[in-house]
Amino acid sequence: MTPDAVDIVRFALIWEPYGGARQEEIFVKFGISRRRFGEMLSQAVEEANFDEAVVARLRRMYAR
User: Fold this and answer.
1) Alpha helices, DSSP H only, in 1-64?
2) Which candidate among 14, 16, 38, 51 keeps its CA 20 to 30 Å from the CA of 29?
């Protein structure tokens, strides 16, 4: 995983217990929309071969 992908996954996992990060938090940290964040997160966890249950939870969280 690239350093950017690691940052995205780490950020998503930190915010997971709270239902995911708000758009404002994502924009301040990464300068992108929540939708784009979800796309990048999805790609990162696929490439890293994460557990399918984790992948599914994170995708649902940021698919809204």
Assistant:
1) 3-15, 23-30, 34-47, 52-62
2) 51
- Rounded to 10°, the helix 3-15/34-47 angle is 110
Domain-wise residue ranges, the chain: 3-62
Q: Which structure tokens are listed for 35?
A: 């939708």
pTM over 0.90: no
Structure tokens at 39: 């796309």
Spatial distance between the Cα atoms of 11 and 29, rounded to a whole number of angstroms:
9
- CA torsion through residues 63, 20, 28, 2, sign: negative
Q: What is d(CA 34, CA 12) in angstroms, rounded to the nearest whole number?
A: 11
